[in-house]
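Bit of a strange request maybe. I'm writing a small parser for structure token strings and I need a real example to test against, not something I typed by hand. Could someone generate the tokens for this chain?
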Amino acid sequence: MDRPFKCNVGACKCCCPCCYQQMSMTSGGQPIGEIKEQCWCCVPRFIAYDGKGNPLYQMHSPTCCCG
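Reply from user aminoacidic:
Good idea to test on real output. This should exercise your parser:
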């Protein structure tokens, strides 16, 4: 698993997409999946992808990250 460090610089990530979280998984050097964070109207959403980059699942919280 590879998860680069990304730090949120403000109250809302929507204005700085460089802070979105992501993690990739490999097995024997071959990609097997990835999870990437996206944002829509300040509500974070995570999308899980398979090893070929096809979206499998969407996960999101029901509230705004700003409170």
